[in-house]
Design brief:
elongated; alpha/beta; 7-stranded parallel β-sheet
Length: about 375
């Protein structure tokens, strides 16, 4: 089975990470995969690092004759069984090429991010008309596709993303790597947040909640993992400067981007996921797979993953006072942390592993390939 996966994005976040993970996992299952990407993007560099075959364009434009010609030649030459895009913007290139040149390769879209734009006008009806199937990564994204696009319900399916549960296995990963690196004592409770520095990811609420907690407890250290994404360095600096402005910078460690996330998670005691409107939340799934208790926003795709009072505590979006209260409950009870952590890993193993995801995805592919 030959699959062309497209994602003409310059950013680096959950969607782009899932593109790499999907490609790697499909290759492991014996499929032939090409990635169609922006040259020199972070996604391209990660694809090369993972030794995935790439085909690139210099940039993405809504109408570019050179890109159209290149894609047409590629599709005719390779004769893919499936084209799978992870970026709805790519449809503006894919649909015209497929329709204008009569290429019948099935086209699938995985929708990672919701849209507030009504796409039921004539132009969007044309752009979505060539789509054979849309995959939603959570219930909120499935509803968003139904509400905002011209797709009929029978062309939309829910497919949860999956992670490598062996890679994110606390029994196979070195523990307390961060404690050793930063010379942190065993008595400290490490509370972490991970993700790119981007508005809506909840860093401000996290830091404000930490200010409250730092005033009450002396045995806490707050770990911030991640960096600014494309075009967001100004916001990233604002986040990095917040603890000093609040007088609590001694309580914080900013690690920057880390590739050893299993080891990082295995150094934490509590994970916080305060995103305002996360479509799904792979980072949360990874943390839960590592057996971490969490405090999460009661919002959107997070509700597909975390269960209040079982795997996590949920709090009202942007309410940093409530966030601090929920974290405090976990600070005060090691027993509760252990209970939530055990339940969290069990939930991931039952619903969100790469095996479950890839086998379901391949089954969907086969529906569009003649016997």
């Amino acid at each position: 089975m030959k699959i062309l996966i497209t994602c003409l994005s310059k950013s680096w976040g959950g969607m782009e990470m899932q593109v790499i993970n999907t490609a790697v996992q499909l290759i492991e299952y014996g499929l032939e995969i090409d990635l169609f990407l922006i040259d020199k993007s972070k996604l391209f560099l990660e694809a090369r690092k993972n030794k995935i075959n790439t085909i690139t364009v210099d940039d993405f434009k809504y109408f570019n004759p050179l890109q159209i010609i290149k894609l047409r030649s590629l599709l005719i030459q390779k004769n893919y069984d499936i084209i799978h895009t992870h970026f709805s913007k790519d449809l503006w290139l894919l649909t015209p090429v497929l329709k204008w040149f009569g290429i019948i390769t099935p086209l699938i879209l995985t929708k990672h991010v919701g849209s507030f734009i009504n796409k039921k006008d004539s132009l969007h009806r044309y752009i979505y008309s060539r789509l054979d199937l849309a995959l939603a990564i959570s219930k909120v994204i499935k509803k968003n596709l139904e509400d905002t696009t011209p797709l009929k319900p029978d062309k939309i399916e829910l497919l949860y993303s999956g992670i490598d549960d062996e890679k994110f296995n606390p029994e196979r990963v070195v523990k307390n790597k961060l404690r050793e690196k930063y010379k942190l004592s065993e008595e400290l409770i490490l509370i972490g947040i991970a993700g790119r520095f981007s508005p809506g990811k909840g860093h401000e609420e996290f830091i404000n909640a930490c200010e409250i907690l730092a005033g009450k407890y002396k045995n806490l250290k707050f770990i911030v993992i991640g960096e600014s994404s494309y075009g967001e360095s100004k916001y990233g600096k604002k986040i990095a400067d917040m603890p000093a402005a609040l007088g609590i910078d001694d309580n914080f460690i900013f690690t920057g981007f880390r590739e050893d996330m299993p080891e990082v998670f295995n150094s934490l005691d509590i994970f916080v996921f305060p995103s305002h409107a996360e479509a799904f939340g792979l980072t949360l799934v990874e943390a839960m797979c590592m057996g971490l208790p969490s405090v999460c926003t009661a919002s959107d795709g997070i509700l597909d993953i975390a269960i209040d009072n079982k795997t996590s505590f949920l709090f009202e979006r942007e309410n940093f006072v409530e966030l601090s209260q929920k974290i405090e409950e976990l600070i005060l009870s090691k027993e509760l942390r252990e209970k939530f952590g055990t339940n969290a890993r069990q939930r991931v193993l039952s619903m969100f592993t790469k095996k479950i995801y890839i086998e379901n995805l391949i089954s969907l592919y086969k529906k569009f390939i003649p016997e």
